[in-house]
Amino acid sequence: MTYEFDAVRASFASSQPGRLLAALTHAVKSASRTSAAGAAARSMSMTMKGIPTASVIRTSAVAITIAAAVQPMLIAVMPPTVAPAIPQALFVIIAAFAGLVAWQAEAIESAWSTSTLARWTRR
Questions:
Q1: DSSP string, 25-42
Q2: Are 54 and 109 within 8 A, CB to CB?
């Protein structure tokens, strides 16, 4: 990283919000080792390791498609004061994109290893 980034990181780490975030992160890590939610998350991650990657991609994309399709109906029944001001077209775009991902799950899996995003996540 750059010197400026290191200076910003050090400033944040020594600030009150930075120390609070560090303490909260430490508390969550400590609690997750013995909590029921932590045990369930570890169990789910072990179960997910046995499922083919394309199936995980497809299942996630289908869930996102369904959520994006149902969200406008949920917004319609919300009081106007708490309803989000998100255009309906955005939900259509998200549902269409997730549908394409579900349709091409195998192609996405095979292309992932050479993608720029994969290189960024490996750093």
A1: HHHHHHHHHHSHHHHHHH
A2: yes
Q: Which pair of structure tokens corresponds to residue 66?
A: 């369904």
Structural contact between residues 13 and 22, judged by C-beta atoms closer than 8 angstroms? yes
User: pLDDT per residue over 78-121, tens digit each?
Assistant: 888 888 888 888 999 999 999 999 999 999 888 888 888 878 87
Give residue-wise pLDDT tens across range 35-80: 888 788 778 777 777 788 889 899 999 999 999 999 989 988 988 8
Whether residue 85 contacts residue 55, with contact meaning beta carbons closer than 8 Å, is answered with: no
Quote the CA–CA distance of 106 and 76 in Å, as a whole number.
Answer: 36
Distance CA 89, CA 95 (A): 10
Three-state DSSP class for residue 86: coil
42: left (phi > 0), else alpha (psi -120 to 50), else beta? alpha
